[in-house]
Amino acid sequence: MAKMIATDRGYYNSRIIEAGQTFDAPDDMKGSWFKPVKGSNGAVSEDLSALSVPKLKEMAEYRGIQIPARATKTELIAILTGQAESSDDETDLA
After folding, report:
1. Model pTM score
2. Can you tell me the distance from the alpha carbon of 38 to that of 46, in angstroms, rounded to the nearest whole number?
């Protein structure tokens, strides 16, 4: 078995897999909506850099995470991985 990451929504083993989610699958399994997770010793690490900005935004929405309207890919990844700096004291003038 290998750890895979979904790059788009897919269906495997009687469940829907959302973009960014990881799952175990046979080593030889092929599909256009997922790829093997990069990592050593089977470590799980979501490779969010492989996802597009719209997919990252969709993932944040699915997780109930509020994101800035003009967030960059780097900012989205930081938000989704919990590495974003808090901006509670900033005022949005838009």
Report:
1. 0.48
2. 8
